[in-house]
Automatic annotation (TrEMBL):
Keywords of the record: Cell membrane, Electron transport, Heme, Iron, Membrane, Metal-binding, Repeat, Respiratory chain, Translocase, Transmembrane, Transmembrane helix, Transport
Record carries keyword Glycoprotein: no
Identification of the protein by name: Cytochrome bc1 complex cytochrome c subunit
One GO term describing the cellular component: plasma membrane
PTM: Binds 2 heme c groups covalently per subunit.
Membrane topology type: Multi-pass membrane protein
Catalytic activity from the UniProt record: a quinol + 2 Fe(III)-[cytochrome c](out) = a quinone + 2 Fe(II)-[cytochrome c](out) + 2 H(+)(out)
An example Gene Ontology molecular-function term: quinol-cytochrome-c reductase activity
Domain Cytochrome c: 65-239
Transmembrane region(s): 32-52, 262-280
Compartments in which it is found: Cell membrane
Residues the entry annotates as binding heme c 2: 174, 177-178
Length: 283
């Protein structure tokens, strides 16, 4: 009886190994399924990151030497006012983080930067750097601070063809400061809106993206790239440099109805005085 109690039964010795093997197999399947799910999740996250992350500037990614050249220009001419990390220096210059290459192109290509002297508004002057140096400086600012970038097109390629729509958009968004034909005008506190005749197409586009001085910024959600091009096309069509836009006669500076009204006022006043004198002489 004691031997039969202590001796394991045949059916028990046969089932125990089968249960342990099945448990190990189920654990292995769970681990494999978990690793597979993790792999699928990682691939999905990587795909979403690739789709929704904006592509870096190709010129910056392709040629880091341009960024290094821009850093040398920055260290020589800009670091005193804008800081070693683009953070700005109080009382000297604002932060450049987020301004992008668009702002750099506008400010430097128009000669407003480097700033000659502090004032209510920076005036246009001959630029200190050539186009390559300006692009290099913009590449450095873009690589370290980010912000709006200019389109690849330059010159007349930025002019839209819908001049009627461009004129309407210009009158709605720009004429209150720049006048109806882009000749500029005085603002409050000694500031002024500049004449747009000397500005090239890229400078006008960059100004709409960066909003220099008192000018508001116009993101693509406010003015689409096509609408910006139409505005540029309209500005160039009424520019004093466009000889084909002048129908003849004296343009009176292209300021619109104001100088024309002044001329009409003085001509009419002189005519009234002459008529009054003539009537008095007859009496």
């Amino acid at each position: 009886m004691s031997d039969e109690k202590t001796r394991p039964r045949a059916q028990d010795t046969g089932r125990a190994p089968l249960r342990s093997v099945s448990r190990r197999g189920s654990k292995m399947r769970r681990r494999l399924s978990g690793l597979l799910a993790l792999g699928v999740a990682l691939v999905a996250v990587g795909g979403l990151y690739t789709v929704f992350t904006p592509e870096p500037d190709q010129a910056i990614a392709a040629d880091p030497a341009i960024v290094r050249e821009g850093q040398q220009i920055y260290d020589n001419s800009c670091i005193t006012c804008h800081g070693s990390n683009l953070q700005g220096v109080g009382g000297r210059g604002p932060s450049l983080v987020g301004v992008g290459e668009a702002s750099v192109y506008y400010q430097v290509s128009t000669g407003r930067m480097p700033l000659a002297a502090q004032g209510a508004a920076a005036e246009r002057k001959p630029p200190r750097y050539d186009e390559r140096q300006i692009d290099a400086l913009g590449a450095f600012i873009q690589a370290n601070g980010g912000g709006p970038v200019l389109p690849a097109e330059r010159g007349e390629a930025l002019r839209g063809e819908e001049l009627g729509r461009g004129g309407e958009l210009f009158r709605l968004n720009c004429a209150s400061c720049h006048n109806f034909t882009g000749r500029g005008g005085a603002l409050s506190q000694g500031k002024f809106a500049p004449n747009l005749d000397p500005a090239n197409e890229s400078q006008i586009y960059a100004a709409m993206l960066s909003g220099p001085a008192n000018m508001p910024t116009f993101a693509d959600s406010q003015l689409s790239p096509e609408e910006k091009r139409d505005i540029i096309g309209y500005i160039k069509s009424v520019s004093s440099n466009n000889t084909g836009a002048n129908p003849g006669g004296n343009g009176l500076g292209g300021f619109g109805p104001v100088p024309e009204g002044i001329v009409a006022f003085f001509v009419g006043l002189a005519a009234l005085i002459g008529i009054s004198l003539w009537i008095g002489s007859r009496q």
